[in-house]
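Chapter summary example.
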Amino acid sequence: MTTTTERRRPAATLRYLLKLSRPRFWLYLAGPVLVGVAYGASSVAELVSPLSVALVGYFLLPANVFLYGINDVFDVDVDADNPKKEGREVRYGGGTVVPVAVAVTAALGVALFAVTPRVAWPWLVGFLALGAEYSAPPLRFKTTPFLDSASNGLYVLPGAAAYAAVAGHQPPALAVAGGWFWAMAMHTFSAIPDIEPDRAAGIETTATRLGETGTLAYCAALWLLAAAAFALLDRRGGALLLVYPALVVAWRVADVAVDRAYWWYPLVNTVVGMVLTLGGLWGTTHG
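The structure predicted for these 287 residues follows.
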């Protein structure tokens, strides 16, 4: 039987894959790469080297098709009643288009090993492994409370890989830890709008286990840990990261629904990432 996805014309298929890749969230993977390059580079030439461009290019689009394509294929039953799939995202309709796209983008990720130094390889392996097993069996971390949150440190791995590839040595452990805490909190916050659909589908997550109020407290604590880790590297970075726990308090005081606030975070994260990147660029060009 021909599926909805397979009946699409080529142009419509490309539009479908672009929407599947969550353009609003592209910088969640590419942003850490820009930060990693900015702090790892020792010259302006390294900022725009073919290696830097390749890393940004992969994590801007193909990596998002890889990550979200796997998610949508293995969440097809859960997403049947998820309201987020009605407008801003797409609902997987079966067929081979998405699995083939995932295979191609995974192959492109493997190809990065040919152009990056060995020091970056552990981070690339970590991203590909966690990116797949977050949604796919047998591990499917997303259905295990707290492991779903912890595994989403995967979003910092592209930045660590970029820093290592450009600098030739590993990134500061505190930066990786701070980024990991931030990513854990961001993922768990984004799971709050899914609490009811996940419960209806019988899926247990950190958010379904803690409930909305408990999850917000959990996210605020993780964002405070992220700020503390960055503060130990640079007090200015720590102060910048305090915007996240402050926003949690603001949402509660102003009684803003989380499923509404959720869509503002791409802008918040872009601004914070831009400030961090500009700090790294300043050090590269004036160091």
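To summarize the output: The radius of gyration is 19 Å.
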